Amino acid sequence: QVQLVESGGGLVQAGGSLMLSCAATGNIFSFGIMGWYRLAPGKQQRDLVATITSDGTTNYAESVRSRFTISRGNAKNTIDLQMYILRPEDTSVYYCRRQSSRDGTDYWGNGTRVTVSS
User: Fold this and answer.
1) Parallel, antiparallel, or unpaired for β 33-39 and 10-13?
2) Are 6 and 95 in contact (CB under 8 A)?
3) Mean pLDDT calculated for residue range 30-36
4) For 60-80, how does the pLDDT look when each residue is reduced to its tens digit (9 = 90+)?
5) Nearest Cα residue to 94 out of 53, 40, 43
6) Which residues contact 92 (CB under 8 A, 6 or more apart)?
7) Closest CA to 20 of 117, 97, 107, 76
8) 3-state DSSP assignment of residue 107
């Protein structure tokens, strides 16, 4: 089993910044692919925000590409999402996800809420 714990959400004014962090613990044999997804108010599906692989390859949603940066944290099996120039439309619950092709597992965190006021 793998547990994902997110931190760093909160309330921020438009134009502000926040950093989210996610730590994966448990039976982890490889980094896999870790990333962030978000569920906006009134939506039914989580959307990709950004992912990062063990070799540092990143992928971003077009809407955040120039404003958000995903990186591996200092501790093992952790990732950070630095969010700049936040917009009201970034308001969502942000979920950390870890996928592993090695063992076919797919884990999600419980989510952390980000609210951007106009």
Assistant:
1) unpaired
2) yes
3) 90
4) 999 999 999 999 988 888 999
5) 40
6) 38, 39, 40, 41, 113, 114
7) 97
8) strand
Give the model's confidence band at 32: pLDDT under 50 very low, under 70 low, under 90 confident, else very high. Answer: confident
Q: How many CB atoms neighbour CB 48 within 10 A?
A: 15
- If you count them, how many residues does the chain have? 118
- Per the CB < 8 A criterion, the answer to whether 94 and 49 are in contact is yes
H or E stretch covering 5: strand 2-7
CA 76 to chain centre: 16
For residues 1 and 26, is the Cβ–Cβ distance under 8 A?
yes
